[in-house]
Amino acid sequence: MPAAVPTDEIYERYLKKAIAEINDLGDELARAGDELRVPVLGSGHPLADVFLLKHSPKPTEIQEGVAFFGRSGQAVLKSLQRLHVDPLAIYGTNCFKFGTEEKNDAAAWLTRELHIVQPKLLVVMGEAAISFVNDLRFPLSDPLDESSPGAVCRFTPTIEAVVTPDIDESLDDQTEKTRFWNAFKALGPWWAEQPPY
Predict the structure, then answer these.
(1) What residues pair up with 124 in beta bridges, in sequence order?
(2) Which CATH superfamily is domain 7-192 in?
(3) Cα 92 to Cα 51: distance, rounded to the nearest angstrom
(4) Taking a C-beta distance cutoff of 8 angstroms, is the pair 43, 91 a contact?
(5) Residue 173 needs a FRET pair 20 to 30 A away by CA distance; which of 63, 139, 181, 196 works?
(6) Closest CA to 93 of 13, 22, 183, 8
């Protein structure tokens, strides 16, 4: 009978596979673009526990080619610090990688990202992103309800979800910023209940 493979070794194998698959997706996105259309790639840990999702990239993200670059990324990072959530356990991306592609292409790319990362919690930011995720018809998923921001709910048998207001639209208005924070802070208690690595 073969010896059992240590848990760390299994994790390392999954991590190498996830890194290779994320890199393949990045290469595919780069080929889909050109000098004028540069993809905005997801950023963070390829096997993150928490998957942050916005609808469309903003100009600073397009300029740098990285999701959550700029104001929204800084706001999320500060929020994670306040909640004592490890930012190294986060992956962030947009539904649309270029902001101009066909919805079917964007849906296929996002579905692949979700399958690669296999998060425990999906944080969907804004009504447009919620609608996009619901239209994915992700295997075994329940529709997300935008009327209950901040509530941790079932998305699939292995992924929970939290919906929040759109972070990009929240940054310039104190009332909206408070609404975002009140929903996003559900991540803190959820994180505290997760078993340590």
Answers:
(1) 53, 163
(2) Uracil-DNA glycosylase-like domain (3.40.470.10)
(3) 6
(4) yes
(5) 63
(6) 22
